[in-house]
Structures are given as C-alpha cells and as structure tokens.
Amino acid sequence: MNKIIRWGILGCGKIARKFAADLRLVKDATLQVVASRDEANAAAFAKEFNAAKSYGSYSAMLESQDVDVIYIATPHGLHYEHVMLCLEYGKAVLCEKAFALNATQAKAMIDKARKKNVFLMEALWSKFIPSYKKLISLKEEGALGNIKSVLINFGFIPQPPVAKRIYDPALGGGTLLDIGIYNVFYALSVLGKPDSIEASITPASTGVDEQCAILFKYNNGALAQLFSSYASHLATEADFSGDKGRVRLTHRFYTPDAALEFYPDRADSKQIIPLDKTIGFGYHYEATHGGECLRQGLTESVVMTHADTTLLMQTLDEIRSKSLGFGI
Ligand SMILES: NC(=O)c1ccc[n+]([C@@H]2O[C@H](COP(=O)([O-])OP(=O)(O)OC[C@H]3O[C@@H](n4cnc5c(N)ncnc54)[C@H](OP(=O)(O)O)[C@@H]3O)[C@@H](O)[C@H]2O)c1
C-alpha cells in the first residue's frame, strides 16, 4: 500500500476550494490541515472539505508535524513570502502559478528549497492534463512537422465581485501573471526559448496590464503571437501549426475541458483526438504527481522542473521589460 500523503492548504480562497475538491479524487491523499488569516474561514473550509484541523494563522499550521506538503493558494504577490515561510519550517511545497513576481524571487525560493533539501514545485496544472500531453506527443512524433506559427489568446472581463489580486500591483495584478502566463507557457513548451521578444500593454487604472500582446520571434522563422485581456471576452483557444499539420485546442485551451482538434493536412481535414475524460476540475493530476514525487523522496519534479519555472519567470520578466520599459 502507498504511503498516504497528508496535504495542507495555505490560504482558503477561490482556487483553494477547487484544489480541495479535486484532492478527494487523488488516491492515497488526505486533506489534513488548512490555514486562513481568518480562523472562522479556516474552520468553515475544513468542515466543508473534511480537513482534520484548521488554523487561523499560516505559521500556526506550519508548526504542525502531521502534514507532508503545503499547497500555497494565495495571490502571486505573496508566493515568495509564503514559500519562504513554508521552507523555513522544512515543509514541502506545491505553489500556485505565477510562482513569484519575478525571476529574482523565483531563484531565491528554489535556492532555499535546495539548501533545505525540501520538495518545491510550481502548480502549473496544465502541464499534467491529457490535452497538453497529447499536444506534446504529437509534436514529438513529428505529426505537425516544423512548427512555424503559434497563436494563443486568453481573455475575459472580470465580473464583480472582482478579487483584489486582479488589479492590485502589490499582489501581482494584471493579465500577464494571471492568464497570459498560460499563453507563454504553451508557446515555450512547443517552440522553446524565443530568440527575441516584442510586447506591448494597455494599462488598467492601477498601472497593471489590462491587455498584453506578445510576439516571440525565432531565428528559424517561427513566430508566436500571444494575447491576454481583461477588457474582452476572447475565444481562449490555442493553435499550433507546422508544415505537416495543425493542432487546435478549443475554448479554455489550458483546461481539461478543451477539445484537441488535429488537422493533418488542409484546413478542413479536422480530426477530433479522443482524450481521457476528466473528472473534477483537473487539479488532481498535479496533486497525484506531487504525491508520487514525495513518496520517491524527490526534492524536484522531473515534469515541472525548477529549470521550467526559471525559464518561464525569466521570459515573463523580459516581456514586462519590453512592454513597460522595466521589470518588476
Ligand atoms: N491553477 C489555476 O487554475 C488557478 C486558477 C485561479 C487562480 N490561480 C492562482 O491561485 C492564486 C490565488 O488565486 P485565487 O483566485 O484563489 O485568489 P483569491 O480567491 O483572492 O484567494 C487568495 C487567498 O489568499 C489569501 N490571502 C492572504 N493574504 C492576502 C491578501 N493580502 N490579499 C488577498 N488574499 C490574501 C486569502 O485567504 P485567507 O484569507 O483564507 O488567508 C485569499 O482568500 C493566484 O496566484 C492565482 O494565479 C490558479
């Protein structure tokens, strides 16, 4: 029998609820402890999701010896502080995307995990879902040929009540770190590190990007055009096209809800590639993987590596420096 992995959740907000719900689908895992800044919120969350214990402060939870790994579900502007706190207590960490505000923070977090010999992974959940894996296997089999064009968009108009983190610069607000990160992640996955980047934003009243348009250029002639918006409801689809074929991930391309269409030849020769049906929201894939890493005593995932996180953060920094004239 597998060792049961005992999870803790730090921050009981929106994504924490989805993750806790999906944790019920993970074999040999239990939600052991939860912590909120508000004791009553933590207690209600623990009751709803059957956690054994709740805490009204993050550090009080980290004192607990009954937990194997902490899932950090606070706004990205606080990830650095909360990951460092968990590592200080020697706790393994699965940290929501965006991993940090910038590559400097990410490096310090990774360095600390290495020094403490503790597991740390970015919760880039899309990397574990069936459609992403199929996209990568089609690319690796050569079914798309030489990939020259990547077109990805992700946009919605935030509806009230709008979480503070969406527009607050201190919490890492703006489309790029929230949703544009998926566009960047998929483009990097398929085309690799760009040879040059162009980017432009329109600012919201708080100064964070309300829209962000990015161009990745490659010396082999490939281009990726990536667009994120809080000003428009976009198709939120992704297209990867080569000289042999094209993959289209339909609405909410980064989730298990998307269909994977393969066009092996001309634009009208569509094949729908069957994918394993996902139950839940799809967060159980990353949680299952995290548990396997812990059982094997790993301090780094071989799927979502520290190098993957570093490249992603460095690319996001460069996009900001190109679009704002400075990084964060
Ligand atoms: N993987 C995905 O699909 C996905 C989807 C949505 C969001 N996310 C990521 O998850 C993170 C959280 O997003 P969310 O939508 O869950 O946000 P949210 O609903 O605002 O929840 C964030 C939680 O963080 C805690 N927190 C601690 N200090 C805070 C502060 N100063 N201001 C606001 N909240 C604070 C709060 O929990 P307590 O009051 O309980 O302590 C709050 O409920 C973000 O990094 C986001 O990018 C990922």
Q: Any overview of this molecule?
A:
With 328 residues, the protein is of the alpha/beta class. The chain folds into two domains: 5-125 and 282-303, 3-Layer(aba) Sandwich (Rossmann fold), CATH 3.40.50; 130-277, Dihydrodipicolinate Reductase, domain 2. Helix content is 34%, strand content 24%. The chain contains nine helices and 14 strands. The chain has helices at 14-23, 39-49, 58-62, 79-88, 103-116, 130-141, 175-191, 284-295, 306-324, and strands at residues 5-10, 29-35, 53-55, 69-72, 92-96, 120-123, 147-155, 196-203, 209-217, 223-229, 238-242, 246-249, 260-263, 271-273. Helix 4 links the parallel strand 4 and strand 5. Helix 4 runs parallel beside helix 5 and helix 5 (103-116) runs antiparallel to helix 9 (306-324). The longest helix has 19 residues, at 306-324. The model has no long low-confidence stretch (mean pLDDT 96). NADP nicotinamide-adenine-dinucleotide phosphate (NAP) binds at residues 11-16, 36-38, 41, 73-76, 78, 96-98, 125, 163-165, 171, 178. NADP nicotinamide-adenine-dinucleotide phosphate is lined by residues 11-16, 36-38, 41, 73-76, 78, 96-98, 125, 163-165, 171, 178.
